[in-house]
């Protein structure tokens, strides 16, 4: 089916994040042209019967590590992430290498996050260049991975200020890297070398502490923050409290964190246990996954990602005698939507509209793709899935095409099966048959200053300015508001609620 072909999806229920309607969908030239009943459709359109099915916006997975170089010592992953990992690496070089690899392989539209793993004037300038000239609008920072990718608080503060100035999305991995490093040493000294060491050395209090610190730093920098890989109830509660205080905080969890628990690390089979290594780790409390799924349902958490890194057993075996050398990351891009439908919608923790929000629409809003992506309306890109909510499939490594030699959800029977997938108007998968050529996907340049993140921040800047004008017009400056004296100190305004 060429990019200029016509498609008519008939008889289904169109599900957006805010409402569901019975409607047909007409697609032409890669764009949704009409949504409604009794449409005037030109002859020659491919008719797709969606009777009794749901018609959803295509999923948007915000954390997929493909085609690019993710560096663990002596490790070449099956698919990988090419971000700068050492001091003095160039963000622009990493971006250009990533584009070259991805453009040759991608089968759907994609965008890139760029990691900021050290700080200096060069990084500042390259961030501006990436935003201004290359369509990158998101950067990822790490409070963990000491001596590898971790930024100090002062560096993180400066990066967040830069993100605010250029209108970028600041993605932050929040764990206390200093204490994680100390805990790892202590565990190894005690003879703990297996995968259980990841859970023992990275307790959830180190995540919740760093989450609070990240939100505080972002608030001081007056920058919206997007927390990734939220794994614990205490971190989720910290995010909920920050939102209640009016701070501009969004967060994502992963499918693994919202479905599985840390008992997997104590499995008798080392390979099974090691296949679940992710950072932050899965939590030992068996109630945590359901709690995180509930936070997705009530909008405390905005997005669910796969955090897809399909390392194989041989690669993980680098850490056979030292858990700190097991590569972090799990496979899951293929199963993300089915597993969330089963554990989220079927269990009643979210409805079909919220499902669309956490798997597609919220990501589109946060990354300034909405409503071109993440919504089924006239004028949007024709990224569409015909979804059978009643059909079932059983997940198995024997049928996966996502890479890796292990599946976290082996044997799970899931309701919710994609029957037809359309990407930018092209039929790419039908009834499990993939029919898309490598390289047919496109890099999608992203715009800065998404309203979903920055609208509130802009208003707060106006409030601060107005407060300053009022105070100065009355002859007050800064500290005189506290001391009662006119001190000539500069006025500072930080609004958090």
TrEMBL record:
Residues 112-427 form the Amidohydrolase-related domain. It holds the Pfam family Amidohydro_1. GO terms for molecular function: hydrolase activity, acting on carbon-nitrogen (but not peptide) bonds, in cyclic amides. Gene3D superfamilies: Metal-dependent hydrolases (3.20.20.140), Urease, subunit C, domain 1 (2.30.40.10). Signal peptide: none annotated. InterPro entries: Amidohydro-rel, Hydantoinase/dihydroPyrase, Metal-dep_hydrolase_composite, Metal_Hydrolase, Metallo-dep_Hydrolases_sf. One of its GO terms (cellular component) is cytosol. Belongs to the metallo-dependent hydrolases superfamily. Hydantoinase/dihydropyrimidinase family. NCBIfam families: D-hydantoinase (TIGR02033). This is Dihydropyrimidinase like 5b.
